[in-house]
Write a structure and sequence with these properties.
The structure holds 2 protein chains of 2 kinds.
Chain A (H helix, E strand, L loop, with lengths): L3 E2 L5 E4 L4 E7 L6 E7 L6 E6 L3 E5 L2 E6 L4 E6 L8 E11 L2 E6 L3 E6 L1
Parallel strand pairs in A: 2-11
Antiparallel strand pairs in A: 1-3, 3-8, 4-5, 4-9, 6-7, 7-8, 9-10, 9-11
Chain B lengths: L3 E4 L2 E4 L5 E7 L5 E7 L5 E9 L2 E4 L6 E3 L9 E3 L8 E8 L9 E2 L3 E5 L1
Parallel strand pairs in B: 2-11
Antiparallel strand pairs in B: 1-3, 3-8, 4-5, 4-9, 5-6, 7-8, 9-10, 9-11
The chains are: A mainly beta, B mainly beta.
């Protein structure tokens, strides 16, 4: 089992719809969870962090965390063509006193105009 | 503006050559990291450093070396022992010792074999 798993996609949604991106992780002790957006040929850009069970909203983005199910998701409301990118889920796990961030392979999102 | 600067943006390596990728940050972060990204794949950790003069191997350290002589600098050398160096290399930094702090990335260096 991979430490952090994401569906590679592509996930295609029409403009204006809600895009739902999902991520599962293996380590029950994980405390911090991050979503990054990566445009083709560019570096990852942090868009959301979440640390507690429940929802966290920031503009059109909502991160959802369920530690019991080891599941974190990202919802993008009113999707725009500019949201088309690969979204990386990252989970911070504690290893031998070091904070190890493990990245999923990413989900490619395509927003169709 | 605070940030992470990677140079060069593009780099070409000849057979048997060592090349060094630069990473400088002015965020006053203690921790720095090097990742490799291959097409369609996630980020794989090469080396990390939590403090000056100390660094640890990540998941794919073979064929790479690093140094951390200054807090703001963490250069990566891709040695001739790395037989498949073509990839996108990303440097990141974060506040060390706190699990709720995310990593921030530079713009990356794209390395290719001549």
């Amino acid at each position: 089992q991979k430490e952090v798993e994401q569906n590679s996609g592509p996930l295609s949604v029409p403009e204006g719809a809600i895009a739902s991106l999902n991520c599962t992780y293996s380590d029950r002790g994980s405390q911090s969870f991050f979503w990054y957006r990566q445009y083709s040929g560019k570096s990852p850009e942090l868009i959301m962090s979440i640390y507690s069970n429940g929802d966290k909203e920031d503009g059109r983005f909502t991160a959802q965390l369920n530690k019991a199910s080891q599941y974190v998701s990202l919802l993008i409301r009113d999707s725009q063509p500019s949201d088309s990118a690969t979204y990386l889920c990252a989970v911070n796990m504690r290893r031998r006193g070091y904070q190890k961030v493990t990245f999923g392979t990413g989900t490619k999102l395509q927003v169709i105009p | 503006d605070g940030g992470i600067t990677q140079s060069p943006k593009y780099l070409f390596r000849k057979e048997g050559q060592n090349v060094t990728l630069s990473c400088e940050q002015n965020l006053n972060h203690d921790a720095m990291y090097w990742y490799r990204q291959d097409p369609g794949q996630g980020l794989r950790l090469i080396y990390y450093s939590q403090i000056v003069n100390d660094f640890q191997k990540g998941d794919i350290a073979e064929g790479y070396s690093v140094s951390r002589e200054k807090k703001e600098s963490f250069p990566l050398t891709v040695t001739s022992a790395q037989k498949n160096p073509t990839a996108f290399y990303l440097c990141a930094s974060s506040i060390a010792g706190r699990s709720n702090q995310p990593q921030h990335f530079g713009d990356g260096t794209r390395l290719s074999i001549l």
